[in-house]
Amino acid sequence: MRPGIANSRPAQSLQLQETSMPRWFLMLLVPAVLLTTGCVTYEVNEKGERVKTEDEQDLTKLVFDSNGRFLAVATRLIPPHTLIVNGGKPTEREIRLLGVEGLPQRAAPNTYARCQEWMAKFLSRGETLYIKPQEGADTEQRVIYGEVYMEALDPKTGEPLVDQYVMVNMAMLSQGLVKLRDVREFANPQIQKRMRDVEDEARREKKGLWSDQP
Asked: Where are the domains of the chain?
């Protein structure tokens, strides 16, 4: 299950689901591609202007969406609160989870192990992540503090839910895998309150770092 949807819509129960392209589809797809070779096609935007292909885009720059988040793929996980995205590319960045922090293995061995498992399960699948940098951050710097989002999935179909995302910072906090470092790092007061509430609940339920044997 993906815990902690961060969006204006009500939270729903979510899960990740493996999908694979059926072999028969590949058999149909290959002839179709062969039939279209020699044709020149391209996409246009709402103004009728040609949209650049990936090869034509400036791959040295981060790509941002309309919500001020840049798109990335995790290529290395560094528990308890760091990940490397876009490894080996000009857009490689070290992302540290905004507002939260975990404890090293020697201080909380059980929680550290669970943190490794959680990150490997949800962040190492090659899916697109959406990174919202801390307000005023210089995104040209290698290290960026930010809110990390991943798409929420429909538990029945495994398909992405439109405009619904899971905030990794909050999801890990809800499991006691990390604790609040400074809630004021979040510019949005609503997120500040939600993060406090989530940590309070994890404390009451003695999850992770708040357990008798962290």
From this structure: 59-210
Task: Output the CATH code of domain 59-210.
Answer: 2.40.50.90
Q: How many residues does the chain have?
A: 214
Amino acid (one-letter) located at 110: N
Secondary-structure breakdown of the chain: helix, strand, coil percentages, each rounded to the nearest 5:
25, 25, 50
**Integer angstrom CA distances of residue 74 from 110, 135, 146, 195:** 24, 22, 14, 24
What is the distance between the alpha carbons of residues 70 and 85, in angstroms, rounded to a whole number?
11
| Spatial separation of the C-alpha atoms in residues 192 and 190, rounded to whole Å | 5
The encoded tokens of residue 97 equal 């989870």
DSSP 76-128: EEETTTEEEESTTSTT-EEEEETTEE---TTT-HHHHHHHHHHHHHHHSS---
- List pLDDT tens digits, range 5-52: 444 443 333 333 333 333 333 333 333 333 333 344 455 556 555 555
Q: How confident is the model at residue 200 (pLDDT cuts 50, 70, 90)?
A: very high
